[in-house]
Amino acid sequence: MVDTDDRSTPRDPATGAGWVDPPPRMGFFTDTSVCIGCKACEVACKEWNGVPTSGLDLLGMSYDNTGALTANSWRHVAFIEQPRPAAASEQTDTTTQFLGMPQSGPPGRTGTAEGRNDFRWLMMSDVCKHCTRAGCLDVCPTGALFRTEFGTVVVQEDICNGCGYCVSACPYGVIDRRVDDGRVWKCTLCYDRIGAGMTPACAQACPTESIQYGPLDELRERAAARVATLHERGVPEARLYGHDPSDGVGGDGAFFLLLDEPEVYGLPPDPQVPTHDLPKMWKRAGVAALAMAAGAVVAFLGGKR
Amino acid sequence: MSSQQPPVGERFRRSRQRRDAGLAVPPAEFSSYYGRPILKPPVWTWEIAAYLFTGGVAAGSSLLAAGGQLTGRPAMRRAGRVAALAAVTASAGLLVKDLGRPERFHHMLRVAKPTSPMSVGTWIVAAYGPAAGLAAIAEAAPLLPRRGPLGLVRRVLPPVGRVAGLAAAATAPALGTYTGVLLADTAVPSWHEAYPHLPVVFAGSALASGAGVGLIAVPPAQAGPARRMAVAGAALELYGAHQVESRLGLLSEPYRTGRAGQLLRAGRTLTAVGVAGAVLGGRSRVVAALSGAALLAASVATRFGVFRAGVASARDPRYTVLPQRERLARRRAAETP
């Protein structure tokens, strides 16, 4: 079905995909304000899902040597170093600056007070968003990508033929083709574990409950309360990302609490599912096809020789 | 040639642009994660750009062949049918080769999904390919013996070829334009925003390349329709390309700069040369053939240019962040009275 839902109507994606009486929609709430950048989520994900190594690559991007979500990294911890104190004023300075961390001693003990920088360290464990209106799922021409009963989006590796359309259709740049394998891979929200009533590996391993797993409705309430708490405590820059069912992808199954603009973390500020404009696109193609046929007809009828 | 310079008239138009006015002069500053792209650049390689061309040649050639069939121009019919079969065979090969798992190409035939332009395209090619193939094979009828079982085939083939040729021509416009939707229905910024114009560019490019086949293979005395088809195709292609290069604000930039800009400028020049040659010197066999070759080369350059512009727009986070920031700002402005 061509999805022409109004962007303001929330809907349950599992029901929309034909599941009868599905369990509640499950998802992740990743609260970056308590992330400590330990990368246990990255390791646990690789271990449980048997994801191949991405190789040793020193990127020079703070403590981030993963770089991005790829076919071989289904969780990615981003590290951003900013020259400002943790509880700064409302004026958001979004410049990213490498401060040469780690220093030879703990901050505050090295050098003089004047030489010290105020800085904050943002850490965020990124993951597939399991969109309500998923571009990858819409454009998959083989049916390899499907919507589970939990409302998540999963690739069937025995079906995928590596056409790569989903890679270009993802507004977050998540799904990716594995070079030596030819198929696409991404987070499954541990479909095998949650089907057995278990918690996904990354959330299970997270030592600070930065990654929270549960029914999406519950997580959204919890997230709203957490933002209110942070605002009370003088962190006005705390905001939710991907929680809103009226956004361009119908809301994310995995959403975030961020402490700066999304693009600072490498997230798109206003993602939109590409198929949103598909009916208009087919109309334009239809007009162009008619023009093409008309051009040929005129060419043959328009002159004697 | 300076690629940074906006085309003549651009500054005037910028002030008139309604929707994209804010995008035309982008703010210099934007945030990103270590300058990394937000989107994954397309994993498609040259095969897909080449397929855009061969698919267009097939579509244009089938229209040329059907016109020749219906207006009694056997040389044009034959050239169009043979070129269409060659081009659609190359297309299928290129499409399969670009897959990560080529041996699983038939998984495309498990489903028919209107939300996936690639699935729609699979079924268009599946309908068009056999028809184009049958029409081309029918051209071999005169080579068969007059007697025996093959003699029967010899008598049956021409009417079968006529039906198949018309069926191929009926699906050809879909084959020539769906590829515009294929590219536009992605998150690739400069492809997606170009959705109103890409099918027009591709329709024109397909017509012009079909005309090119006619100009090369058909004696000038019979090639009048090919010359007119070249004019019609070039007009559509140049109009569409101009829209893409000037109407998308910041997202037009990848179409004007870098290798994509060079390819699109080369395509425009070759189209102009090809049309001028066909119209002014088309009575000469040599000039007609050279003009046809120029039109085919123009189509190659245009397709690769459009392809590379999209890839460039996905690689640079500013083409993702700035237009989305603009969209957010517009929506917020509309929400707060």
From TrEMBL, chain A:
Presence of keyword Hydrolase: no
Keyword annotations from UniProtKB, A to Z: 4Fe-4S, Iron, Iron-sulfur, Membrane, Metal-binding, Repeat, Transmembrane, Transmembrane helix
Biased composition (Basic and acidic residues): 1-10
Record's subcellular location: Cell envelope
SUPFAM superfamilies assigned: 4Fe-4S ferredoxins (SSF54862)
Chief site of localization: other
InterPro entries hit by this protein: 4Fe4S_Fe-S-bd (IPR017896), 4Fe4S_Fe_S_CS (IPR017900), FDH_Electron_Transfer_Unit (IPR051555), Formate_DH_Fe-S_su (IPR014603)
Keyword Transmembrane: yes
Spans annotated as Disordered: 1-23
Annotated TM spans: 281-302
PROSITE patterns, alphabetized: 4FE4S_FER_1, 4FE4S_FER_2
Domain 4Fe-4S ferredoxin-type: 26-56, 119-150, 151-180
Lineage top rank: taxon: Bacteria
PANTHER family: FORMATE DEHYDROGENASE, NITRATE-INDUCIBLE, IRON-SULFUR SUBUNIT
Name of the protein: 4Fe-4S ferredoxin
Organism: Micromonospora gifhornensis
From TrEMBL, chain B:
Keywords annotated in UniProt: Cell membrane, Membrane, Transmembrane, Transmembrane helix
Pfam families reported in the protein's UniProt record: NrfD
Region Disordered: start-end pairs: 1-22
Top-level taxon of the source organism: Bacteria
Membrane disposition: Multi-pass membrane protein
Annotated family: Belongs to the NrfD family.
Protein's name in the database: Polysulfide reductase
Biological source species: Micromonospora gifhornensis
